[in-house]
Amino acid sequence: MSWLVTGGAGYIGAHVVRAFQAKGIDTVVVDDLSSGRRSFLTDDERFVQGSILDGRLLEDAFEKFHVQGVVHLAGFKYAGVSVKRPLHTYQQNVAGTSMLLAAMEAKGVDRIVFSSSAAVYGTPDVDLVTETTPKHPESPYGESKLIGEWLLADQARATGLRHTSLRYFNVVGSGTPEVFDPSPHNLFPLVFEALLDGRTPRINGDDYPTPDGTCVRDYIHVADLAEAHVVAAQRLDAGEPIEPVYNLGSGDGVSVGEIMRAVAEVTGIAFDPEIAPRREGDPARIVASGELAARDLDWRMRHSLTEMVASAWEARRSAPVDNV
């Protein structure tokens, strides 16, 4: 028996696969490699190249690899771009999730861990986001993740599907030098690429009502995130009680200014960030409580900010030039 990881060749997915393997749980990966990389997977990895929109491919994988559960990470993950490509976002994230659930039902696969997003909250007006904070997504991406949660809940009522959804903000760091974050939209890669190109990293606004004037966000280490996915899967396997949603939050957050200072220290490249105007819609602070996940999923922040930056920098510098 094995767990299928959709999007398992991506930055987060490859870490989830490694976390399962570390616990001795067999995995199989389905990924269309639109953003994932085959090189992120180990040589002996069971890999199926294809889209979650291909129901027959999914059903064949479930049957061939004796799949007992799914970790669903595949999707279009760029919130800003989703505003310009709403139909593509809904096709990948909503139609894809629907197709996956249909294939699961057809083959009797009855448990799923869904990688959701804190984008479902939009811009909350509370200091600390909890699972009951009202949901007001502000992009097709955030909307698609919320719809995904609804699909799981509806399917659970209809078929007894066992499920949970994990919501989180900014994932950083690396658990292995072989896997780095290649996204052109995330803060760490943007800062690293600027430094490697001899450019000065940029901060969007330094006049927010925060301790150093820069935005405060949740930044969590990808290996900690991966571990939470495995524990959630283990609870589903064991038939233990599990909540429908969990926030994987730090509880206190880190400012963009703090990140810049940590990057300068870790890399040894001294720089003063360029200060650009605020980006429209950027709230001063968004931080989530991880108390519920700590209770049930052994969730905790196992890595300091310095460790997050150092592991991410090592993985980026280890990447082959033709793989960046």
TrEMBL record:
It comes from the Bacteria. Pathway: Carbohydrate metabolism; galactose metabolism. Residues 3-249 form the NAD-dependent epimerase/dehydratase domain. InterPro entries: Epimerase_deHydtase, NAD(P)-bd_dom_sf, UDP_G4E. Pfam families: Epimerase (PF01370). Its EC number is 5.1.3.2. Keywords: Carbohydrate metabolism, Isomerase, NAD. It catalyses: UDP-alpha-D-glucose = UDP-alpha-D-galactose. Its cofactor is NAD(+). Belongs to the NAD(P)-dependent epimerase/dehydratase family. NCBIfam families: galE. This is UDP-glucose 4-epimerase. It comes from Agromyces humatus.
